[in-house]
Amino acid sequence: MPPARRLPTRDLALIALFAALIAVLGLPGSFSLFGNAVPITAQSLGIMLCGAILGAKRGLLAVLTFCALVLAGLPLLAGGRGGLAVLASASAGYFVGFPLGAWVTGWLTEKMLPRYTVPVGLIANIVGGIAVVYAVGIPVQAWRTDTSGVVATLVASAVFLPGDLIKAVVATVIAKGVHAGYPTLGSDRRESPSRIRSGR
Questions:
Q1: Cα distance between residue 158 and residue 154, in whole Å
Q2: Can you tell me the distance from the alpha carbon of 87 to that of 144, in angstroms, rounded to the nearest whole number?
Q3: What number of other Cβ atoms are within 10 A of residue 31's Cβ?
Q4: Strands, E, within the chain: which ranges?
Q5: Straight-line distance from the first to the last Cα atom of the chain, in angstroms, rounded to the nearest whole number
Q6: In this predicted model, what pLDDT tens digit does every residue of 140-180 receive, in sequence order?
Q7: Is there a contact between 152 and 139 (Cβ–Cβ < 8 Å)?
């Protein structure tokens, strides 16, 4: 059996850096609107950035690293939350959906590299960073708060969606700038310099 492929040191550094970025985005704290059990934080922006900049594999690993540290007890979620109790909260589904959201965002992003365009990049962030995370988070929120799925969906749409759409725009603009300087950063494929210049 062939030996397992090891990640290059550069990739490991990027994974650690973006895991730390998600944690830093939690420093401003969190707040709840209209008594909602799930707080609003800036950390979902970090999830989008992981996929939009690092691509599917490394974006996923960065978010999984962050999640593992949280479950290990480090208070890295906004509001100083951490530990296994996170999985019993109303926001557990959003937390579990973070890695999948980053992977989908990264997978969609890789399809257009090395030419990162704002319209497609925005779609990737909305689909992965919002739709996928909501698809996991809303049913769990409904279950934990003992409400109907329709009510939870309406609450999420009214409370979270406007801010998350702004985060998707911000993540897209940042990713556009990064990929303009580093055209293959978000992909595991190593393109030749001539191919990068030609855009093929």
A1: 6
A2: 10
A3: 11
A4: none
A5: 35
A6: 988 888 888 777 778 777 788 999 999 999 999 999 999 99
A7: yes
DSSP-derived letter for residue 153 is: H
Let me know how long the chain is. 200
Rama region for 132: left / alpha / beta (φ>0; ψ in -120 to 50; rest): alpha
With the CA atoms of 153, 159, 160 and 164 taken in that order, what torsion angle do they form, in degrees rounded to the nearest 10?
130
Contact between 178 and 185 under an 8 Å Cβ cutoff? The reply is yes
Q: How far apart are CA 31 and CA 11, in angstroms?
A: 34
Q: Is the pLDDT of residue 194 over 50?
A: no
Residue with tokens 């890789």: 110
**HSE-CB for 157 with a 13 A CA cutoff:** 6
Report whether 90 contacts 122 (CB < 8 A). Answer: no
Return the CA Rg of the chain. 17
- Give bridge partners of residue 40 from the DSSP assignment: 31
Which tokens sit at 29? 């704290």
C-beta neighbour count of 64 within 10 angstroms: 17
CB 132 within 8 A of CB 104: yes
Task: Write phi, then psi, for 75 (nearest 5 degrees).
Answer: -80, 65
Q: State the Cα–Cα distance between residues 89 and 83, nearest whole angstrom.
A: 11
What DSSP character marks residue 129?
A: I
Q: What is the pLDDT of residues 54-74, one digit of tens each?
A: 999 999 999 999 999 999 999
